[in-house]
Structures are given as structure tokens and as C-alpha cells.
Amino acid sequence: MEIHNPQATGTPLINGPRLSDRHREMARIGGTANGGVNRQALTPEDTQGRHRLLEWATARGYTAGIDPIGNLFIRRAGTRADLSPVMTGSHLDSQPTGGKYDGVYGVLAGLEVLETLDDHNVVTERPIELVVWMNEEGSRFGPVTMGSAVAAGAVPLERALAANDAKGVSVSEALARQIAELPPMERRPLGATGHAYIEAHIEQGPVLEQEARGIGVVSAIQGLHLYQVEVRGFEAHAGTTPSRHRKDALVAANALIAKLRAEVADPADVLRFTVGRFEVSPGSPHIVPGKVTFSIDLRHPDPEHLLCTGDRILELCSGEIEHCMVSANVVLRSTPVQFDARLVTAVRHAAEHRGLRYMSMVSGATHDAKYMADRTPSAMIFVPSEKGISHNELEHTDDEDLIAGAQILCDALLAAATMEL
Ligand code: HGY
Ligand code: MN
Ligand code: MN
Fold first, then answer.
1. If you measure from the C-alpha of residue 362 to the centroid of ligand 1, how many angstroms do you get, rounded to a whole number?
2. Which of 183, 221, 313, 318 has CA 20 to 30 A from 418's CA?
3. What is the 3-state secondary structure (H, E, C) of 289-333?
4. In sequence order, what E strands does 77-127 have?
5. Rounded to 10 degrees, what is the CA torsion of 108, 185, 123, 106?
6. Domains of the chain
7. Is the CB of 365 under 6 A from ligand 1?
């Protein structure tokens, strides 16, 4: 897709080949045999990706800082250091079988904007900051969007630092190790806010491709609830224990999940109910399972509907089922968020001025922008995902779409820098 009217908007054209090269290089950091990436939060691969980003940034003279939960800030100075920054960013961490664009696109597009401004000697009054949020994916350590949620005060810092991965390594230990391996940098306080925040991200769904639109002007993010359910039965010998004496946690968990699915079934197919993690213990073929834990990821754009569905799920996940005891706890309740109408308009105007086909949309995936929007005027820009595939190693977005989105990001950030917000 050609970017029309290159100078009509008076803002500089980004360097598309540089952006594409950076994606290819980042895709090799944690790259998997199937063409995806496994660059989970605070792993050596995540540290390597941050290292590489910092090399590109410091080569330009940008300064770097890190806050107590590991959110990374790269700053391009403006003429007025006293003014709050215009911000952009996303995440470098990935799912274990993630794609090459989820998160990293917004980070590299943001860096591309900073470098484009340098290449064209654009001076801004406001500083411009690129943020790399820590642990957006919530796969190695829970919950999802950990860094931005802690920065916003939605998740206590101590709880996040104490979170353990499957091997018992805590965020605190892994973060200390990463910080020791990164170049020394300024320590930032929690609670980053700015004049404006605009995040570029792949859509991770099929809508833009189906509608043949290159740019998603994101107006909102739907709500997300995360629950952890525990089913407790009684371990018993697989050979000697008759069914009538069993308290089989797996049988009970399956029956409960079937009941939950029936309860939340949505003919309009708007509600999203996912059991993504399911653990059976002790996990021996010869022992009747005594315990099952599973996650529930629940999403919906309407806060009321999400809340009452979540409460109904908690009701059903307590008490006895199939001779086993069930309990559940709330891991995260993230409300839907509306983006700042003025910034959404700036994104739309940028797409119009560049002659790009765009559409307004609500994000089905959650993003760090959700927590920034609670405290800073925010907006997002989407680019298409091929066949809507994401959180999958086959994830793909064409270079020209990535470049077009980064150009819109550049135009919108420059517009935001001079807006009264
Ligand atoms: O799950 C999400 O919505 C995000 O991609 N982590
Ligand atoms: Mn993401
Ligand atoms: Mn993701």
C-alpha cells in the first residue's frame, strides 16, 4: 500500500527499510524453528532484545531509564525538559509460541519515529518517550499487562515482584538478573504518565483484513477478567478404587467447565471465555487426580455484562461438584477503556491525510495502553494480521502494512505534541 501525499501533512516520512530490517533482527532473538518467537518476560532472550534496543537508542543519544517493575523508558529530548512527554510504546516479551509482531511492532515503530525525527532534524518542545512495558503477555509470570498495571497502581508492586514462574523463580529475582545484565541507567519512579500516549500494535484478529482496511483507529479496549479455579478431590489407586468411591478432580473439573460454558454461552458470539491453562496433579497415569487447577480468561466490551458474568462464574466455582470441592479467586479484573476522542481523531486524520483505508474498531486483545488510558490521554493504531492469526508462530503482517502504521504513528505523535490535551 503506497503512502500518498508524502509531504501533504508536512511530517517526515519514516524509513521503511530500516523498520523492516529491525523486525527481522528482533525476530531472530528468541526465534523458534516454526518461525515464531519465544521471548518470555525477563528471560535471557527478553534481556537480549532489550539490550539490542538500547544499543540502537544510545547510538542516537537517547537516554534510558527503568522503573521498579522493569518498565524501560527511552527518551528523545525536546527543547522543554519541564514539559510532560509524548509517549509511545508496547512490549518486547512474547507468548511461549508467539508471533514475530505482537508487541515488538509497537516498540520498533516507536523507535522508528524517534529516529525519523532525528533524520529530518525535527525539533519538538516536548520530550518523546518510548516505553517497553515489562511482562505484557502474562505467560511466564501472571498477571497479563503486569508492568503497565503496576505502573498504574492497579496491581501492587510487592505482589508482582513476588509472582513466581513454573520453576519457582520470582519476578524480583529475574528482574534483578536482567537489570544487572543491562547497561546502567537512570532509575525511574513508578507511575509514568505523559501528555499523550499512542501505541501501535497488530490487530491480532481478522477484521482489518476482512474489511480490506490497512489502519485500525482503535476507540476502546474490551474488558478482561482473569480467574484461577482449584478443584480438590482425593488421590487414589487407579487399579483398586471403584468409581463410586472416587473423588476424581479431573472428572469434576471437566463437568464444571462444561457447566460454565453452557452458562456463559453467547449466541451473539461477543463474549470470550477461554480455559488456557489446565494442570492435573499429581499427574501420574496410575493415580486418580486429587487436584486440578485451571485459568479462565473472560472478555467482553460491556462492563456490566462482564461483571455479572464473572460473578456468576465465581458462584458456580464454589462448593461441591462430582464429590470434589471447588474454589476460585480473582487474578485480575481489567475494565473496558475508551480512548481519548481527540487523539483518536488525530489518528483518523493522519490516516485520511496519507490516503490510507482505515476503520474504527474496539480492541479484542488487551494492551498496556489500557492502563495508560486510566491516567494519560491515550489511543492505539492497529495494522492487519494475516488471517487474524496471533498468539501463534504463524502470525504475519506485511511490511507495507507495518510501515504504513508506523507512518500514522509518527504523524499522530507529532500532532499530539502540539495539542492541548
Ligand atoms: O491476551 C492479550 O490480550 C494480550 O495479547 N496479551
Ligand atoms: Mn501484545
Ligand atoms: Mn499478546
1. 14
2. 221
3. CCEEEEEEEEEECCHHHHHHHHHHHHHHCCEEECCEEEEEEEEEE
4. 86-91
5. 20
6. 6-222+337-417 (3.40.630.10), 223-334 (3.30.70.360)
7. yes
Distance 8 CA to ligand 3 centre (A): 35
Atom 3 in ligand 1: residue holding the nearest Cα:
365
Residue with cell 511530517: 11
Centroid of ligand 2 to alpha carbon of 367 (angstroms): 6
Closest residue by Cα to atom 5, ligand 1, is 365
Convert 182-245 into a string of H (helix), E (strand) and C (coil): CCCCEECCCCCCCCEEEEEEECCCCHHHHCCCCEEEEEEECEEEEEEEEEECECEECCCCCHHH
pLDDT band at 11 (very low <50, low <70, confident <90, very high): confident
Give the integer Cα–Cα distance in Å for 151 and 324.
39
Which residues 6+ apart lie within 8 Å of 379 measured at CB? Answer: 196, 197, 198, 199, 218, 339, 340, 343, 344, 346, 347, 369, 412
Ligand 1 atom nearest to 364, measured from its CA: 3
Omega of the bond leading into 143 within 30 degrees of 0 (cis): yes
Compute the distance from residue 367 Cα to the ligand 1 centre, in Å: 6
The three three-digit cell numbers of residue 59, written as one number: 547510538
- Residue 137 CB–ligand 1 contact under 6 Å: yes
For 13-37, write each residue's pLDDT tens digit.
Answer: 999 999 999 999 999 999 999 999 9
- Cell numbers for 248, please give them: 476424581
Give me 406's grid cell.
Answer: 508506523
Q: Is 144 in the pocket of ligand 1 (CB under 6 A)?
A: yes
Nearest to 131 by CA among 371, 391, 364: 371
DSSP per position, 12-26: PPP-HHHHHHHHHHH
* Confidence (pTM): 0.94
